């Protein structure tokens, strides 16, 4: 058992020296063969010795001149080394000059530290009992490259966010906490990373940030603040290098705190800020780490929704209308001037504005009761459209044998002809005339005609009813007056007193349709009824030949209808219906007769 205790003392010396080395400077390690002698113990003691003239006040260990954060509670190295030296002396007395090569072996979580393998040597003791006899082998640290998916330094991590007011400013405090991992002090790089939402990242610089730490020390907790130079901003992350704040304290927790001071909290569209944090062995974007980093949210002011304008806005408008969040303020900016109005409880607003210029821009924002502004909405003022409809078209009569609808209207407009659910389209020419082709329609069919301008304005509609295609007298004067004449020794032709006397014929059959007019008259009778004149009314043609109208109907006109369906029929002064008498047939008096006019729709 003496040998067993000896081995235990060996282990005590090794562990004590190992602890002392790494508590002084975790960047210096001792590996390889070590002879257990007082000299070797002294050599271990001299690794990284503290200069005698150096004095560190434990109350002033917050920061060093190099900017690194110092560690509180550094143990008395001389006292530890004396204990180590005594232990070595005792072990030398128990072991017979046998060299025992002791190499430390420890299982270390993945780190970035690469340690070369060294040869190992068995430690045997002739004095060990058969039951206790065994090979004692200490392997050097085996450290593997962790890769990107295993970068975390702490376990059981949490992230807390709080909001407060400090010196009149809004402060967001993020507290990241996690438990340490075995051999954490062997890590060559370490960072405390905080990922912030873009709304905050877009508004901060390093002057907005302060940070502190609360980590394990060798004797007590190590607390302090990071300097501004130690706080870094990169992308959407704030980080601090914390390598010199790691120790080998097991089952201890680490806390890193970040304070963000803002004049006001930036607005969000979601109503919350989301934060992430991790302590890692490499400086990395937290989004690429496998699993979920520590995360938390904090309520954030929400931006009012942007206003919606009633589109479009024209230069002739005197108000701008739209919708927005109820019971807020709508603010418009137009050519450097500002106009405001209230959004009513139903979400509608109306803002009075002066005359607007075509092409000018209107910028609108909603301001809520807390003074937060929405994103802006922009709209461009357009030229006012033509809102005056064309005048009602004038439509010519439409007859049953016609295949066009004709009339007059505003030049350049479109003609819409509507007949029993069917539409036919044409256009008004530069002189204001239109002609739209249609199928022939039955009499009494109603046709509607409208004009539409380029702006889409529609004229009042005009309606016409289809007339059956016919030819007829439009105007027949009720009386033909002849001049007063003195009859002497020879026959005389008495001319008409009204040289402009005429007939009018309306022919709806279309241009070029032939027709003939016939005339038949009664005898001339004296007003007292006592005397008549046979063959007194005659028709005189262009060759001056006369033909009595008393015996039978006589053709007095033959022709065809022109473009105008109304034809005026008249004769020269010495042609047409005249009175022709001889001296032996007349008496002094006034005579009259009746003429019957007949129109024939063929030549």
UniProtKB/TrEMBL annotation:
Biased composition (Basic and acidic residues): 42-53
Domain Bacterial Ig: 310-381, 390-466
Disordered: annotated span: 35-134
InterPro entries reported for this sequence: Big_6, Ig-like_fold
Transmembrane segment boundaries: none
Pfam family, one: Big_6
Compositionally biased spans, kind Acidic residues: 54-65, 91-134
Domain of life of the native organism: Bacteria
Protein known as: Bacterial Ig domain-containing protein
Source organism per UniProt: Salinicoccus hispanicus
């Amino acid at each position: 058992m003496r040998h067993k205790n000896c081995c235990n003392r060996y282990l005590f010396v090794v562990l004590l020296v190992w602890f002392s080395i790494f508590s002084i400077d975790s960047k210096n390690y001792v590996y390889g063969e070590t002879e257990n002698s007082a000299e070797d113990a002294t050599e271990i003691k001299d690794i990284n010795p503290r200069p005698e003239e150096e004095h560190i006040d434990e109350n002033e260990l917050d920061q060093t001149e190099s900017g690194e954060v110092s560690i509180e509670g550094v143990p008395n190295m001389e006292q530890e080394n004396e204990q180590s030296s005594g232990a070595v002396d005792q072990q030398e007395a128990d072991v017979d000059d046998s060299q025992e090569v002791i190499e430390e072996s420890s299982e270390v979580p993945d780190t970035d530290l690469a340690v070369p393998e060294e040869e190992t040597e068995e430690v045997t003791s002739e004095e060990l009992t058969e039951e206790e006899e065994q090979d004692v082998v200490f392997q050097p640290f085996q450290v593997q490259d962790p890769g990107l998916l295993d970068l975390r330094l702490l376990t059981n991590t949490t992230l807390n966010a709080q909001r407060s007011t400090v010196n009149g400013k809004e402060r967001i405090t993020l507290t990241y906490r996690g438990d340490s991992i075995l051999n954490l002090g062997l890590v060559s790089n370490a960072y405390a990373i905080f990922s912030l939402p873009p709304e905050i990242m877009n508004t901060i610089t390093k002057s907005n940030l302060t940070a502190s730490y609360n980590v394990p020390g060798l004797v007590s907790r190590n607390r302090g603040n990071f300097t501004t130079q130690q706080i870094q901003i990169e992308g959407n992350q704030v980080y601090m290098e914390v390598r010199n704040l790691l120790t080998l304290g097991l089952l201890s927790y680490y806390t890193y705190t970040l304070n963000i001071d803002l004049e006001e909290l930036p607005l969000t569209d979601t109503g919350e800020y989301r934060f992430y944090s991790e302590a890692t062995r490499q400086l990395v974007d937290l989004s690429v780490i496998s699993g979920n980093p520590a995360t938390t949210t904090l309520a954030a002011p929400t931006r009012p929704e942007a206003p919606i304008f009633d589109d479009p806005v024209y230069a002739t408008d005197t108000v701008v209308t739209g919708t927005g969040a109820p019971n807020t303020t709508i603010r418009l900016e137009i050519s450097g001037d500002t106009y405001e109005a209230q959004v009513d409880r139903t979400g509608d607003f109306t803002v009075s504005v002066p005359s607007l210029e075509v092409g000018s821009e209107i910028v609108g924002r909603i301001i809520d009761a807390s003074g937060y502004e929405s994103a802006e909405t922009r709209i461009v003022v357009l030229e006012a459209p033509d809102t005056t409809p064309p005048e009602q078209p004038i439509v010519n009569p439409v007859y049953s044998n016609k295949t066009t609808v004709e009339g007059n209207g505003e030049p350049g407009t479109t003609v819409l002809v509507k007949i029993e659910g069917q539409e036919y389209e044409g256009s008004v020419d530069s002189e204001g005339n239109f002609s739209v082709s249609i199928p022939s329609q039955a009499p009494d069919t109603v046709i509607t005609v409208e004009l539409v301008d380029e702006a889409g304005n529609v004229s009042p509609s005009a309606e016409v009813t289809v007339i059956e295609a016919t030819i007829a007298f439009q105007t027949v004067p009720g009386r033909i007056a002849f001049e007063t004449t003195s009859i002497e020794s020879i026959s005389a032709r008495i001319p008409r007193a009204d040289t402009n006397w005429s007939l009018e014929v309306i022919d709806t059959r279309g241009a070029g349709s032939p027709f003939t007019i016939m005339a038949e008259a009664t005898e001339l009778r004296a007003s007292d009824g006592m005397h008549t004149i046979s063959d007194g009314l005659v028709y005189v043609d262009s060759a001056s030949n006369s033909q009595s109208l008393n015996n039978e109907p006589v053709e007095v006109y033959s022709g065809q209808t022109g473009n105008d369906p109304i034809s005026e029929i008249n004769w020269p002064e010495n042609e047409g219906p005249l009175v022709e008498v001889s001296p032996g047939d007349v008496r002094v008096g006034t005579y009259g007769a009746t003429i019957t006019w007949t129109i024939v729709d063929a030549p």
